[in-house]
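Researcher: We are triaging several targets before committing to wet-lab work. For this one, the compound of interest is pyridoxal-5'-phosphate. I'm pasting the protein sequence and the ligand SMILES. What I need is the predicted three-dimensional arrangement of the protein with the ligand bound, expressed as structure tokens, so it can go straight into our comparison scripts without reformatting.
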Amino acid sequence: MADQGFIPFCLPSIGEEEIQEVSKALRSGWLTTGSYTARFEQEFREYVQAKYALGVNSCTAALHLALAALGVGPGDEVITTPITFCATVNTILHVGATPVLADVGSDGNIDPAAIASRITPRTRAIIPVHLGGLPCQMDAIWKLAAKHGLHVVEDAAHAVGTHYRTIPIGASQASPRSAAVAFSFYATKNLTTGEGGMLTSGDEQFQEKARRLALHGISKDAWNRYSENGSWHYDVTECGFKYNLSDIQSAIGIHQLRKLDGFIAARRHQAELYHQEFCNIDEIETAPDSAEARNSWHLYIIRLNLKELSIDRAQFMLEMKRKGIGASVHFIPIPQLSFFAPWAHLPQNQCPRAMELYSRSISLPLYPGLDEAHAKYVAHTVADIARQHRKRAIPARVREIA
Ligand SMILES: *Cc1c(COP(=O)(O)O)cnc(C)c1O
């Protein structure tokens, strides 16, 4: 398949519908947050079964808003995973709180037992991250949160369309057990608006506070209700941010949302194809999955069995590149990043399992625009690289002598 060109790690799926809708939004004369965003919020809220949804300009903004609206701040500790994008930890620092890392389990998600070991009298919140679209063990996390009076804010950047058991991530159940859930519509994510995000919750007061904070802390209601001042008048009641989602972005999002189930089905199909190819190869561990969940398959992360291979992860990825396949690593653990290192290397933040998994993880191309032939090429080629670099088996007799 030398003639196919390079297979990129990631490509967005933007169709004519999105392009037409953006043109319509541009021609409408209203570019910033307006009717398109209101509609996108409404349809998104219905899709994930949330009581409230707030469109914002990124998942980072959603996480920051959630912590700010919950009043998490200086002196508080927030527990999260070392295997996440830096934004998760940055937002904890943005509100002046102290991030605390709890190690992951073999599926790459934060381990509830590790969370339990990190809880102190200062702990205020937990931010689980559903890595690659595989949900965390939320029942155990909610139980810990209830026991210790902690807020749960889910980083669902990968998990739009994920179901935990049978319930969508983001859903407000009879008694919502997460204070808020943050979604990302960044260019590489399952649903994209170029840049964008959504914050869902089940609590009206939280939602109103987050909405106010997302737009400078401006309050119109109080004045309009009690004075003769016209619609031009407003008050600023707190120090807010500028995190609103524009109508241009929402015009894209409305169509992406309608296609999302189809996108996820295509991703699942490719994941199954990879699984079939790798499940009999000792050198490769297939991506973790759970029968209890609907995985959104944002990422397909293999783990190399380095004991069986004569090459390391870097060499393996170089071989993939030589064969025309793009790949990535999710994520460089937080302690490996120089800004976080001094704090993350403290004994109370040690995460040996995350470090071990990182050294052998590779994310393979996985997106609706990847056709079957290319997906098969990726699967066969990755399997071939593993076979070619299999450590030579040492005959039993030689081992005995040694
Ligand atoms: C992409 C990502 C974010 C940040 O999303 P933005 O919308 O780009 O702010 C946060 N957390 C995780 C795990 C991500 O992958």
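Researcher: Any quick observations?
Model: The radius of gyration is 23 Å.
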